[in-house]
Amino acid sequence: MSGIVAFGAYVPRTRLPLAMIQGRRPKEDGPEKAVAYYDEDAVTMAVAAALDCLRGCDRSRVDAVYFASTSYELREKQGAAVVAKALDLRRDVLTSDHAGSLRAGTLALEAALHAVKAGAVRTALVLASDCRMGAPRGALEAKLGDGAAAFLVGDANPIAVFEGSAARADELQDQWRIDGERFTHTWEDRFVVQEGVEPNLVAVLRALFEKLGRKPGDYARAALYAHDARSQATVAKQAGIARERLQDPLIGRLGNTGCAYAPMLLVAALEQARPGERVLCASYGDGAHALSFETTAALEKLEPRLGVAGHLARRRSLGSYDAYLRSRHLDPQEWEGGADLGLSATVRFRERDADIGFVGARCSACGQIHLPRPRVCIRCRAKDRWEPARLSDKRGRVLSYTFDYFFPAAEPPTIVVMTEVEGCRVQVQLANATPDAVRLDLPVEYVFRKIHDAGGKANYFWKASPLEQGAPA
Amino acid sequence: MKPDAIRDKVAVIGVGCCQFGENWDRSREDMIVDAVYEAYADAGIEDPQRQIEAIFAGAVYPREGSGEVADALRLYGKPITMLMDYCQTGTDAFRCGVFSVACGLYDTVLVLGFDKPKDRGVSGPSVNFDRVRGLPATPAGWFSLCAARYFERFGAGREDLAKIAVKNHHNGTLAPKSMLKREITVEDVLSARIISWPFGLYDCAAQSDGAAAAIITRADLAKRVRHDAVLVKGVTVATAPHPQRDPDFDFLAWKPTLYAAEDAYRQAGITEPFRQLDVVQLHDCFTLTELLSYEDLGLCKKGEAKEHVASGTFELTGELPVNTDGGLKTFGHPTGATGVRMIYENVLQLRGQAGPRQVKNASLALSHNIGGAPQTCGIAILGMS
What we know:
The structure holds two protein chains of two kinds.
Chain A: E1 3-10, E2 14-17, E3 32-34, H1 42-53, E4 64-68, H2 79-86, E5 94-98, H3 104-117, E6 123-130, E7 147-154, E8 160-169, E9 175-176, E10 185-186, H4 189-212, E11 221-224, H5 229-239, H6 261-272, E12 278-284, E13 287-295, H7 307-313, E14 316-317, H8 321-327, H9 345-350, H10 352-355, E15 359-363, E16 369-370, E17 386-390, E18 396-404, E19 414-421, E20 424-429, E21 443-452, E22 459-466
Parallel strand pairs in A: 2-14, 4-5, 4-6, 11-12
Antiparallel strand pairs in A: 1-7, 1-8, 2-3, 6-7, 8-13, 9-10, 12-13, 15-16, 15-17, 18-19, 18-21, 19-20, 21-22
Helix pairs in contact in A: 1-2, 4-5
Chain B: E1 10-17, H1 28-43, H2 48-51, E2 54-58, H3 67-73, E3 80-83, H4 89-102, E4 108-115, H5 139-144, H6 147-154, H7 158-173, H8 186-191, E5 194-196, E6 199-200, E7 210-218, H9 219-225, E8 230-239, H10 255-268, H11 273-276, E9 279-281, H12 287-296, H13 305-311, H14 327-330, H15 338-351, E10 364-371, E11 376-383
Parallel strand pairs in B: 2-3, 2-4, 9-10
Antiparallel strand pairs in B: 1-7, 1-8, 4-7, 5-6, 8-11, 10-11
Helix pairs in contact in B: 1-3, 4-15, 7-12
């Protein structure tokens, strides 16, 4: 028996009020979309969703990472491996990337469910993360949002048992992006809806019901990919799913998060579900894909997490459309980066424990923690007596701070904080905060972020983020 | 170091300094020659190829090694030591020169500091992207990290820092070779654009081009050259943990200065620095660095610096004038040259040649550099008699 053991999600807190795209003043509670900030990408969002999902879980149990994204930057060099390092997972973890289709998220989930069911791995982490871009002020820009979903798949004590799936392949050029392009293309909208989204989703839902011997009414919740609200309603109606069973597609709040969209709606459904409910999830892209789950009593024992709802509630509007362009690196620069080799690969290799894993070293002689690991202890001068000390899941506090107006940032200043975590000093940037929120002794947690694009690729490290009251442990 | 290993054994017999500033039309060679030939003249050196036995040179930006100095000065067949220890470079070049004379290796050596940051095409330090940890990595960012906690602990603020900038701008107007010669007000400082909070533009030293030189010799030989040779009372360098990684760093004092001051005062036999010292050049890369350094050097008690700023203790007319030539703030901060420029100013002060900024009856003078984040500090104490 395989199923979902835990889930998590991530929605960047930066939001673009859609009115700003047209240069209009945004209204309170007007439609908006979630925007990966200038220091976020598919990898950092996947890590954040994974950390949300892994609350209370023993990370050393994770045997596999399935990372799905259509917007992960590198065509050669695995995203799942970066995520696994950032999460400080075991070295023998099976990592694989899933890409190329908006269905990549649910397909990765299905692959993990089968791998667990077959006994190939016991626990798999499935991540779907996307930050696709529509051209500035183009047709897609207002529709696309950014976010990530995470599922821990296992065979022991699932919160939702996997019942089965149905798939359908189709060939039409409705949405696509060619290698090297930044913006997703789309064909005329009615073509996409009438020949792509609606017939494929309806067909795959009917196939699922038939395969599992279910009626639409058996499902308490349906997490359906939504090209837009109207087409989602049409799909539901034709498939026989009652409107009140439809999971809110979060249009005007989140936006279409690509291959993470249906998985995020599934997370949102599981957040609201009670034990013993049937939940379905259906995604679209080059065909369609539907999965069926039944929740169990274990759902009620799951530790609190932010999930989709918690992350959506944490929001900050961008101040202007220009700030959006800067936050997505869409503003022209005097010096375009990427012409150089960037960070030394050998330095990056040697320092990956500290830089990617945020793993320091504890002196076995005196207990002092260092980041990065030195050879000789600063406290007791013991030599080479280290054990790894993961700091990414620890909380710290701000010892001092400054606001730097020179470091490139979407909205200067960059907040720099000296933090103390487990007795170790780490100087980092402060994410998710404006200068007025900074104070001495501010409690913080750590988040994985992109620091810069030297060498034309994302270079990651951790930042501090103010710990919010009532945040789950 | 052994307390009596250096005191009164080495003398400065000549100093020189080129015009500091954004010397667009002057090369490193131009500035080195200007500073060194002035020092030659001051020391009565007529045949440097014969009289200068070794050179200790410090520079942060060049990567051309000792040959650049040899070729600029046409001094060949001599050992040239090139040093780099960030902002502390100049004092360390002086220290190595002093030690070489004190231990009898040479009779007369040249100490040189120079730098030309304005050939780099950036205004101020460039943004560093060769790593991901510890960014942004700018000196303003490093030194400003003390501010929040120091301000909270001792009730100081940007206004206190501003008064230091105003003082150093005033002093700079009185130094012919300084870069900036403009009086400013507290309001100017507070309303300037922020570089790295709490530092606005006027809280930051003026990055400039420049070179400075000193010629040192055995104290017994110095008397034959000039009656007003200045004696080295003590010189030291000390290192402390990187403040961003030191688990015990308290953001209230820079440890390198504490360590170096203890040793320098012991060498010079100073027990009450505020009372005994007559003039001080200290490392004012940022106004807060000057504020903390008053305390770290023991010129006042920890936490009391702002009261001394308010009462004018460290102004030219105060009890202990500090940064009499405008300091890094307005004389300029060509990184490798700064420590030697301070020696130049202190020698002029001790000889009574500092013109309108002269401190009366100055007979004991201290100069102080801190370097890096900071991890290092160099201190030189000079005196008459």
